[in-house]
Amino acid sequence: MREAVVSTAHALVSTVRERAVRPPDRSFMTTAPWRDPALPAAARVDDLLSRMTLEEKTAQLYGVWVGASTDGDGVAPHQHDMAVEHDWEELITRGLGQLTRSFGTAPVDPALGAQALARAQRRITEAGRFGIPAIAHEECLAGFTAWQATAYPVPLAWGATWDPPLVEEMARRIGDDLRAAGVHQGLAPVLDVVRDPRWGRVEETIGEDPYLVGTVGTAYVRGLESAGVVATLKHFAGYASSAGARNLAPVRAGTREFADITLPPFEMALREGGARSVMAAYTETDGVPASADPELLTRLLREEWGFTGTVVSDYFGIGFLHTLHRVAGTPAEAAHAALEAGIDVELPSLKCYGDPLVDAVRSGEIPEDLVDRAARRILLQKCELGLLDPDWTPEPAASVDLDSTGNRILARRLAEESVVLLDNPDGLLPLAPDTRIAVVGPRAADALAMLGCYSFPSHVLTHHPDVPTGIEIPTVLDALRTELPDAKVTFAPGCDVTDPDTAGFEEAIARTADADVCVAVLGDRAGLFGRGTSGEGCDATDLALPGAQGELLDALVATGVPVVLVLLTGRPYALGRWDGRLGAVVQAFFPGEEGGPAVAGVLSGRVNPSGRLPVSVPRVPGGQPWTYLQPPLGLAGEVSNLDPTPLYPFGHGRSYTTFAWEDFTGGERTEIGTDGSYDLSVTVRNTGDREGAEIVQLYLHDPVASVTRPDVRLIGYQRMELAPGAASRLTFRFHTDLSAFTDRSGRRVVEPGALELRLAASSTDVRHTAHLTLTGPVRVTGGDRRLRCEAEVSGAG
Length: 797
Description:
Layout: H1 2-15, H2 41-51, H3 54-59, E1 63-64, H4 79-82, H5 88-91, E2 98-100, H6 110-127, E3 135-138, H7 155-161, H8 164-181, E4 185-186, H9 210-226, E5 230-236, H10 255-262, H11 264-271, E6 277-280, E7 284-285, E8 288-289, H12 294-304, E9 310-313, H13 317-323, H14 331-341, H15 355-362, H16 368-384, H17 405-418, E10 420-423, E11 436-440, H18 456-459, H19 476-483, E12 488-492, H20 505-513, E13 517-523, H21 549-557, E14 563-569, E15 584-589, H22 595-604, E16 659-665, E17 670-673, E18 677-686, E19 692-701, E20 713-722, E21 727-735, E22 741-742, E23 748-750, E24 753-760, E25 766-775, E26 779-780, E27 790-795
Parallel strand pairs: 1-2, 2-3, 3-4, 4-5, 5-6, 6-9, 11-12, 11-13, 13-14, 14-15, 17-25
Antiparallel strand pairs: 7-8, 10-15, 16-18, 18-21, 19-20, 19-24, 21-27, 22-23, 23-26, 24-25
Helix pairs in contact: 1-6, 2-16, 7-17, 8-9, 8-17, 9-11, 13-14, 14-15, 17-22, 19-22
């Protein structure tokens, strides 16, 4: 196995092998102002641009994907027909903007990969007149997508923690690993808000609420940027609202839905997180592809929000303007549309921004100042990263350990906090330490059941079946045996994830009949483009459990033995069919390499579950799409026989301890101005006999507005960890900016009238309500409006 990995690394190294060439004349660079780190970055870049040829400027506008396959299945849409062959040695004489996925294309030993990347950078700097290295980028959605790198829980699991500081710590560690390997830019986080849970990429999102997505996503951005790595927000914008939940399908969202649900997480991550890059979405909205939309990528992003970083295409997104969207007749026309809209960098390789762009500029079809605008932004970013400095070196860190002990400890903590106890009606959990347990289900003994589609084993290793996973991933079965050494644990898979065959039911039923309790571990298999039940291009027709898993669960329940359902999934599935028939229900969203021990810890009681749902769990498979952000006619009512009310609502989750919410201040109706603020407080006390965490959620209800509004929406939350008997005082500092919405004219306004602020344990479990009346004129908010509700925790007094 080791030989296969080493040979792959040598193949990549040989692609960029050093060879004896005459270096370009650089005598002019000795005193060039752009080489002086003491000068302002803008002055340095202006000087550099003035010296560059058109070919050298356009070379900064694209990446090169070394080792990408041009045939068979790939890791990006249409990879097989969009990849471009090129002469590496000739190409880099012009310079190069980006290097694409040096680690995420094939299984490469991290140390050898870092050396190969350094060698590629040396060749790039030696071959071009200016000696400017490329920006190396990688995927890092749930950890550095590289062989032997830590596989953290997926973003939907981050949302389930409701713990932004922990997510920030994870992102900082991911950034440190990227930097150690020589990578400058990470293609994360995903800030799409779930609009239809059938969409395959739900696992990559943080949840169905823009405030939760924005706060958790912004924490990830802060962590990655603090490590010196450029965070890339994706997918800008509307990608998750595709019609019918089909990947890349047209988006038919209205302007107010777009403004109030789709865009806020991006604005927060830019304004508060400091993200330095944005990725344009594949999709079109109302007939206009995002990659050709100057209203989105220039007027809103740059002129209104003040963004000064780089906009990159999603992989082949510019070429898709020609081949898929058909709003451009040639690659050159696609390049023109994208440049004019505001896309600076073509990823993953040169299709449109290479020779087609150069030829079109030469012929006068495309203004050269569009090239200059993009090149200037890219070079400014390279200057920020130190890549224009004379003392820059490509040499990697002395050692590259991408799955350190510290990483694994953090991955375990994230996984433990993300597990959601949906139901435990009779206290079946925690399991007795010496009980007889039948573990059943296709996800119980499969390590890949823990991982999402952008983990390296699921994303890349499926193409390299002889290469080991490179990291230790305990299964739920193995972890449960370790967790409960005195228990008698038996196992039967019962069925496959997707195969309808029920031949394995007999053994599973027999194992269950001989046990005191059955732990049924069901769920998804992550994959790409139809090779899984969850992941990019793996969209679902409905929200029934895949394959024969629902039938298996029916058969297990019919034995009369109590069944604990454990779900390892990338999306929520409809569970109403088993409501009231299960001993307990545990939900984990692809919890990463330490997910097995985390789930087993919840089952044994070592871990007190504290996760809360970032997405609603439906009662029935149909009646979708639905999220909790519904105006009155989106809720259950007499106008339709279909009831979309979820079985478990957004924000729901149970614990092994209990909490009391006491001494609430804010019960009387209060008047404040439309530019005012209001504090509401509550004391949260742990009334149980063990340590636990409560998630206090603040929702806004707007009874009457000039346009229909969601019945409730999240505007604040706070995770509170309390020892038995301990209490803390929580104060939310509400500002009326948080009640703003987009009116009929497209302005974001605060309107006078009644409001309710609801302190709740979920979107439906309201504990206390504050009644406000906003007085004064309608107020139009600006770019300085408050985006979050600050919370303060103090002693209970």
